[in-house]
Amino acid sequence: MADIDSLKQALSVSPDNVPLMILLGEAYLEQFSLDEARTQFEQALQIEPANATAKTSVAQILDLSGKSSEAILRLEQVCAESPQHAPAWLLRAKLALNEESATDAREFYEKAVQNDVSLADPELLKRIKEAGGGGPKSPQNPTPQASSDSQAGAFFDPDFDDDDDPFSFGGEDDGQPSELELDFVQKANVNFEQVGGMESVKEDIRMKILYPLENKELFEAYGKKAGGGVLLYGPPGCGKTLISRATAGEIKAKFMSVGLHQILDMWIGKSEEKLHELFELARRQAPSVLFFDEVDALAADRKDMRTSAGRTLINQFLAELDGNIDENDGVLVLGATNAPWHLDSAFLRPGRFDRLIFVPPPDEPAREEIINIMAEGKPVSGMDPATLAKKIKDFSGADIKAMFDQAVEASLSEAMKSGKIVPVTQRQLAKTAKKVKPSTRKWFESAKNYALYANQSGFYDDVLEYLGIQK
User: Fold this and answer.
1) What is the pTM assigned to this prediction?
2) For the chain, how are helix, strand and coil distributed in percent, rounded to 5?
3) Across the chain, which distance is largest between two alpha carbons, in Å?
4) Do 258 and 277 touch, CB atoms closer than 8 A?
5) Residue-range definition of the domain harbouring residue 296
6) CATH of the domain at 124
7) pLDDT tens column, 256-290
8) Does residue 336 belong to any structural domain of this protein?
9) Is 94 in the same domain as 224?
């Protein structure tokens, strides 16, 4: 690990030295000091806006901060602008694998290795193959062209084949799963038993989601239909995606996870088509759970939109939620966001995301369970999960992982020097816990202001209750 103090001293002598800024950013990143690392990379980009290394590192920080969709979009831009920059392709491969897009992950991995063979990662390739990434897809690089002056802004590509597009419409039904189903429909392989802690969140979900679905006929007698929209909000890295998947597992429903990058498209009107087809797929698969991660990016306030295309997509989303296009009976739409206050207010009206569930940082029993999970398969010695859990109050699941990663790296460094396995100890974990800053605190600083001064509807009362603030 580079010496941060030495790098800072060198940078003070040469303040416009971009390579030094990047080295310092990487040193901060190794210590999981994300804010400090991002500051260095963004300063480098102010001097060299096209620096692919700095852009890729910012994307990595966004992913580590729980903003995977934004990270993917930024990496797409880096790969388009600097197609020879292998680290960006490799990071895209890892994120695609996390999104369970094994075919894309294989394609990105192959491009990374083609550009820099030293980045070959047999373990990553093995995981991609196990996930179903048997080989890279044929590359497609459609060049948008204006079809005529009378269709300004509408693009077409004469070489574009609808058969290659998983969102294409039409075609005969041969009884086989469509490419869209293969890409999006997943089995929910977890339920509430596999989710540590979060008991209050689970009970809230049971009352607002599970019981209505389990007692469908009773609710229909009162004119209520199963399904609807629920918004999960809270600090990043606290398990909103996991609890969504577990919810699908509890009701034995198909689970469809949708990221922003899977909806947005360069073709006029194509984003709306993709969104509609996903809702249609969820309706055909009912009972199903349609999960939108970082939904605030897709359902942003229309007042902030600079283009009509963004507003049109939001209107399409609202129409799908309302069931104006087709019935949503049996379709549960879950949205997860770190910033519910950035959603267009229309999404929070009755019949849409009208049920809000606050997902707080893991409580003490949950932290203890996460620690036990993190310790599995690692050489640990003298670890006391209960005592450690008490010392890491306000830590998110991602923060606990960062704590373990740093402790493992320290033990691994010693093991490499001695040639023997050096176990991770309680003392080492406690030491690294002091270096990791709880990422949830910054979120609560913002959330507190919204809960106190922009909470006329009472949406954020759970935040005030968690903070122990009386209205």
Assistant:
1) 0.60
2) 55, 10, 35
3) 75
4) no
5) 179-358
6) 1.25.40.10
7) 888 777 787 777 788 888 889 889 988 888 888 88
8) yes
9) no
